[in-house]
Amino acid sequence: MGQDVGNDQLLLIKVEGMHCHKCELAIQKALTAVPGVHEVEVDFPSKQASVLFDPAKATIKQLTQAVAKTGYKVGGFTQQKHAGTPQS
Length: 88
Ligand SMILES: [Cu+2]
Description:
single chain; Alpha-Beta Plaits; four-stranded antiparallel sheet; 4 strands; globular; binds copper (II) ion
């Protein structure tokens, strides 16, 4: 059947406690490791992680928990339908 990315959802997570680019990488690694996650972008200056994921495989809770487990605080999140390019 192939991979259908049409149902992918974009989640923007506000991450508190990042202080350098190593934090960025740690969070990116943790989120990428969650099954169902297709794309992760972490932006340290805007303290935001954008995650493109398959809502049939991953839940928002799993994603926010991955951030929390890495040692950062989730300040909130915004759900978006995937529209091609994440907003920044
Ligand atoms: Cu750091």
